[in-house]
Design a protein that fits this description.
The protein is globular, with a radius of gyration of 20 Å. The strands form 2 sheets. Strands 1-11-10-4-9-8-7 form a 7-stranded mixed β-sheet, with helices on both faces. Strands 3-2-5-6 form a 4-stranded antiparallel β-sheet, with helices on one face. Helix 3 runs parallel beside helix 6 and helix 5 crosses helix 6. It is built from 10 helices and 11 strands. It has a single domain, classed as Rossmann fold. Strand 8, helix 7 and strand 9 form a beta-alpha-beta unit. It binds adenosine-5'-triphosphate (ATP). Belongs to the ABC transporter superfamily. InterPro entries: AAA+_ATPase, ABC_AA/LPS_Transport, ABC_transporter-like_ATP-bd, ABC_transporter-like_CS, BCA_ABC_TP_C, P-loop_NTPase. Probable component of a branched-chain amino-acid transport system.
């Protein structure tokens, strides 16, 4: 994936771990159409009875900040996501797994606004965010990590950090002649710089601050991507294969940071191909297959689920 669009988000925290919500979902059909990168909001009013919550204050939804309801996305004749529904519990590290082509990345893209669903909706902290463009989704505190774009490789690590929350009161105001506003902007920049150093320190890459991002190892880049995402002060992070190409010792460090952040109350949804990693680190696992949510539960539930084994072996489920 690419590009970076992140902003200040909501800071909220409360923990509750443990899953145990195991269920197998059935099939539904929807409209089969194309369309792709539309940025316009597509809000569907249909609500499934079990997830009627939507209190904009989030009071009814604190336990499950993210709810995905009956999402469907087609590309031409290909049904990438087919009536997918699930929830992510606050303060958990939840894994989204499935064989190649199961619809995981498309689901991520639907949640974060990179794609607009044909049907269904996405609720975050009780608010319907379906079809919002990525920067607006990030504004709500739901942030995904982005690979460092090629053009940013020629900037230093610290410069990359300073670019992260770009929707702050800033550019338009720079030209303002109002002294009070200018002071405000300068203060924001100082605070941002301080926080950038804190994050670099947290991820133990502060010694690389002046290094060009392009010179970092794969693992160091992943640390920088995570640090950048956190600089926007999100409520929940979506990680798409954060450990791909990372050597074992950096992977271990990155995982330690993720667990530490989870203990602080951050919520994570993680797509990862390494099954052992998912099973050892996630409290809850959602399995997709052929665009649908096949099942979900604790790692031990999932390990014992024959449908999951069959899906991975390419059998019929
Ligand atoms: N932009 C697109 N245009 C056409 N088809 C697409 C597009 N994006 C995804 N697909 C198709 O949708 C299906 C689901 O793809 P998706 O990438 O979401 O699966 P995935 O579970 O992330 O797979 P992988 O683990 O291999 O990355 C696949 O058949 C894929 O070829």
């Amino acid at each position: 994936m690419s590009e970076s669009e992140e902003t200040t988000g909501v800071d909220d925290a409360s923990q509750s771990v443990d899953g145990g919500r195991t269920e197998t979902r059935g099939e539904t059909d929807g409209v089969d159409e194309r369309d792709e990168t539309g940025a316009e909001p597509t809000t569907t009013d249909a609500q499934s009875p079990s997830t009627l919550d939507t209190d904009a204050t989030g009071s009814e939804t604190g336990e499950y900040p993210l709810r995905v309801e009956n999402l469907r996305k087609t590309f031409g004749g290909i049904v990438a996501v087919d009536d997918a529904s699930f929830e992510v519990e606050r303060g958990t590290l939840t894994g989204l797994i499935g064989p190649n082509g199961a619809g995981k990345s498309t689901t991520f893209n639907l949640i974060t606004g990179m794609h607009t669903p044909d049907e269904g909706r996405v609720l975050f902290n009780g608010e319907d965010i379906t079809g919002l463009p990525p920067h607006r989704v990030a504004d709500k505190g739901l942030v995904r990590t982005f690979q460092i774009a090629r053009e940013l490789s020629e900037m230093t690590v610290l410069e990359n950090m300073m670019l992260a929350p770009k929707h702050q009161r800033g550019e338009a105001l720079w030209r303002s002649v109002t002294p009070g506003v200018r002071d405000d902007v300068v203060r924001q920049e100082e605070e941002l710089l301080e926080r950038a150093w804190e994050m670099l320190d947290f991820f133990e890459i502060d010694h690389l601050a002046e290094e060009y991002a392009g010179n970092l190892s794969g693992g160091q880049r992943k640390l920088l991507e995570m640090a950048r995402a956190l600089l926007t002060d999100p409520d929940m992070l979506l990680l798409d294969e954060p450990f791909a190409g990372v050597n074992p010792s950096l992977e271990h460090r990155l995982l330690e940071h993720v667990h530490e952040l989870r203990e602080q109350g951050y919520t994570f949804l993680l797509v990862e191909h390494d099954m052992d990693l998912i099973m050892q680190n996630c409290e809850h696992v959602i399995v997709m297959h052929q665009g649908k949510v096949l099942t979900e539960g604790t790692p031990s539930d999932i390990k014992q689920n024959e449908q999951v084994v069959e899906a991975y072996l390419g059998g019929n489920v």
